[in-house]
Amino acid sequence: MHCPFCRNTDSRVVDSRTADDGGQIRRRRQCPACNRRFTTIETASLSVLKRSGVTEPFSRSKVLVGVRKACQGRPVSEDDLAVLAQQVEETIRLAGSAEVDAHEVGMAILGPLRELDEVAYLRFASVYQGFDSLEDFEAAIALLRAEREPTVDEPATA
User: Fold this and answer.
1) What is this structure's pTM?
2) Residue 72: exposed, middle, or buried by beta-carbon count in 10 A (0-12, 13-18, 19+)?
């Protein structure tokens, strides 16, 4: 790490702390040449491999943009969307790979979005999974209904 003041190539770590719920490490450093202090923030990199073959850094904001479109006009708050984006990132990081396929990001979005709002889920799934006909929508709705209905052993709640 170069000192931002004198460009010396050496620095000493004075203090380290976790930040962003453990997703980052904040390090306070001191330059041995000029004795000035500066802060660095380290994060584990996570890359997304797109269908075109291009690799780009994972971005929560891109997840938010896509999900926000699906939630347009629905009773979903910005806080709900932020939590969803965090859940998606955590799910992807738990996979343990530094590079993840864009398809896996979409799959990680579908589960939390279904729990958040079923209509938004159908909107997102219709684009993401490429619904071509009414039958695709009907199949997805039937699956949602089947998951929602109680089993024979469970009493129906009123």
Assistant:
1) 0.66
2) exposed
